[in-house]
Design brief:
single chain, 77 residues, alpha+beta, Alpha-Beta Plaits, four-stranded antiparallel beta sheet, 2 helices, 4 strands, 29% helix, 31% strand
Length: 77
């Protein structure tokens, strides 16, 4: 049996404007829809959004566009 412990590529972005759990849900929902995204973790207190992707990766522009669609802004990646 082969148990892979391969770590998936991830990238963390700083997002402004999130103030509540609804904000977290909106960002998570939009970023999850980006092709290639496998997981999204949002830390409301720090404003950090960590995006885990498959081997093909995801462009920063695609993540930024999804965050903006949710109504927020990526200020740092």
């Amino acid at each position: 049996m082969n148990h892979s412990t391969e770590t998936k590529p991830s990238r963390t972005y700083v997002v402004t404007g999130m103030t509540c759990s609804h904000c977290v849900a909106s960002v998570t929902e939009e970023v999850t829809e980006v092709p290639g995204v496998e997981a999204v973790e949002v830390d409301l207190s720090s404003g950090e959004v960590t995006v885990t992707t498959g081997s093909s990766g995801v462009s920063d522009d695609a993540v930024r566009a999804a965050v903006e669609l949710a109504g927020y802004t990526v200020v740092e990646s």
